[in-house]
Amino acid sequence: MTLKIISAEQILYTGSVSSVTLPGSMGEFTVLKNHAALLATLSAGNIRYTEEGGAELSTPVTGGIADVDNNEVSVCVY
């Protein structure tokens, strides 16, 4: 699954991951491979993701929007 995290200024992350945990405005949720299509707003927190090699990374955000479709997670943050 591909994860892209972008802000207005730069691309924060792009790569292949096995899972992504997002701070949704209605609660934290995790996206795995073959997840159903989804559009969600994000609140302040950390986007946590596990790369295919097993490395666990985190990116702090103050909010944003996540779009999940066809094994691609696109996150626009601010």
Describe the structure using short key phrases:
mainly beta; ATP Synthase, domain 1; 8 strands
Model description:
The protein has 78 residues and is an all-beta fold. The chain has a single domain (2-77), classed as ATP Synthase, domain 1, CATH 2.60.15. The protein has strands spanning 2-6, 11-24, 27-32, 38-42, 45-51, 56-61, 64-69, 72-77. The mean pLDDT is 97. It is built from no helices and 8 strands. Strands 1, 2, 3, 4, 5, 6, 7 and 8 form an 8-stranded mixed β-sheet that branches.
Can you describe this structure in just a few lines?
The protein has strands at 2-6, 11-24, 27-32, 38-42, 45-51, 56-61, 64-69, 72-77.
Average residue pLDDT: 97
Q: What is the rounded Rg?
A: 11 Å
CATH class: Mainly Beta
What would CATH call the architecture? Sandwich
**Cα shape:** globular
Q: What string gives the helices and strands in order?
A: EEEEEEEE
| CATH level-four homologous superfamily name | F0F1 ATP synthase delta/epsilon subunit, N-terminal
- Multimeric state of these chains? single chain
Q: Count the strands?
A: 8
